[in-house]
Amino acid sequence: MAAKDAVGRHGEQVVARRLEEDGWEVLARNWRVARGEIDIVAVDGHAVVAVEVKTRRTDACGSPLEAVTPAKVARLRALLAAWLRQQSRTFSDARIDVVAVTLPAAGAAQLEHVRGVE
């Protein structure tokens, strides 16, 4: 596995663990179809949430949040709709969240969670 992929997978693991610690129910990880992938699908209260995880070792190339473009958000909306069509469970709300993970050289990962990205 390439180093970049390993960093990304580690960030996703950190976020999934944090969401579960915060009482969320993680329903799927790395859900894929031909049009793309949702990193994490989870339930927060009555809402189903597609969580995009962006992980970086430093912010030398900008914030991880800057990597989530309007086109990416639109693709995530379409992917979440596709995921929902495959489910028998219903939800009263749906949204897209982004979690930026920075992995410093020493110490714990730093997370920035942005809810309801438009």
From TrEMBL:
Signal peptide boundaries: none
Highest taxon of the lineage: Bacteria
Pfam entry (one): UPF0102
PANTHER family linked to this entry: UPF0102 PROTEIN YRAN (PTHR34039)
Family according to the record: Belongs to the UPF0102 family.
Name of this chain's protein: UPF0102 protein QQX02_01545
